[in-house]
């Protein structure tokens, strides 16, 4: 087994990107077919058969993870070996460093964590160890999240290992669980610390005239409908009150009439009874007429005498 030379385009790559490494046997082998081995930390990582007329063999590691970081070298042999049989370094060693896309950071509140509406709150996002960045970048992106949703993006100072987030004029919906994440693979140049695009546009939000008119008409209709309902209720209550008053008046009048009839009816009955009894008493008796009176005066001298008979006196005008 003989050493070969390793060549890479980038020694520092971001997570989920592709790694390209070339193992060269130029100047080391003759025109024969060999097996080229890519080693990581002196252990076989991959192998490819190289034809006799080839001297460069490219290895591609797709969508690398953080575990791809390590020391890489190349060796070759005319024999094919098993992975555990390859334990040798190549002509040179290159360190490959995979930069994480997301790195959890520590967050703290500068001041009280309980605020009132309209207050400002400052949050500090920090790291305990300086992060590895692409090309020794001094500023990287950092996210402030609330309840798992990205809320703000700010530059993270790699040297100071800190980023500051400010929430101005806090309102009730700003309550929640906050955390921050640093993006070491997202480099920001020093002159681009303010995260801007190629240009900026001004957007002015105005109140819609149609919407305002629609809301006004809707409110007016609701008020009119409410007024109509109240008027109908009042009218119905007034009619009910008038009917109740009329009914009470009729009942009261009927009651008074019945009372008067009962009072005067008893008085008339007692007077009529007394008069009738007096008339009957006056008419009681024995009626008679003297026989010796002339016929023409007999009827004239007929009178009533109670329990006795008195002769009628003749009228002196008659002879």
From TrEMBL:
InterPro entries according to UniProt: Ig-like_dom, Ig-like_dom_sf, Ig-like_fold, Ig_sub, Immunoglobulin_dom
Q: Which UniProt keywords apply?
A: Immunoglobulin domain, Membrane, Transmembrane, Transmembrane helix
* Membrane as UniProt keyword: yes
Membrane-spanning segments: 209-233
Q: Domain of life here?
A: Eukaryota
Recorded hits in SUPFAM superfamilies, A to Z, give: Immunoglobulin (SSF48726)
Q: Which Pfam families match?
A: ig
Q: What are the Ig-like domain coordinates in residue numbering? A: 104-182
The molecule here is called Ig-like domain-containing protein
The scientific name of the source species is: Larimichthys crocea
User: Which lineage do the record's taxonomy fields give for this organism?
Assistant: Eukaryota, Metazoa, Chordata, Craniata, Vertebrata
């Amino acid at each position: 087994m003989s050493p070969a030379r390793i060549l890479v385009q980038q020694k520092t790559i971001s997570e989920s990107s592709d790694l390209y490494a070339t193992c060269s046997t130029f100047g080391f082998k003759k025109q024969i077919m060999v097996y080229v081995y890519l080693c990581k930390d002196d252990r076989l990582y991959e192998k490819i058969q190289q034809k006799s007329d080839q001297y460069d063999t490219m290895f591609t590691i797709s969508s690398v993870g953080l575990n791809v970081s390590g020391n890489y070298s190349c060796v070759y042999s005319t024999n094919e070996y098993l992975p555990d049989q390859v334990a040798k370094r190549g002509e040179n060693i290159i360190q490959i460093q995979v930069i994480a896309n997301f790195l959890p950071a520590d967050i703290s509140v500068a001041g009280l964590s309980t605020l009132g509406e309209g207050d400002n709150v400052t949050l500090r996002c920090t790291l305990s160890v300086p992060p590895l960045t692409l090309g020794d970048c001094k500023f990287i992106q950092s996210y402030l999240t609330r309840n798992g949703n990205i809320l703000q993006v700010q530059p993270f100072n790699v040297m100071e290992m800190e980023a500051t987030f400010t929430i101005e004029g806090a309102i009730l919906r700003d309550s929640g669980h906050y955390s921050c994440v640093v993006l070491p693979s997202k480099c920001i140049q020093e002159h681009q610390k303010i995260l801007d695009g190629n240009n900026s546009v001004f957007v002015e939000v105005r109140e819609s005239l149609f919407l305002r008119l629609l809301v006004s008409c809707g409110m007016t209709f609701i008020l009119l409908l409410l007024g109509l309902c109240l008027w109908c209720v009042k009218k119905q209550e007034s009619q009910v009150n008038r009917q109740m008053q009329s009914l009470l008046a009729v009942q009261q009048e009927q009651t008074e009439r019945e009372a008067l009839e009962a009072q005067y009816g008893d008085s008339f009955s007692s007077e009529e009874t007394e008069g009738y009894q007096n008339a009957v008493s006056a008419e009681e008796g024995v009626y008679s007429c003297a026989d010796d009176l002339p016929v023409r005066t007999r009827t004239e001298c007929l009178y009533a005498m109670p329990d006795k008979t008195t002769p009628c006196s003749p009228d002196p005008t008659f002879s």
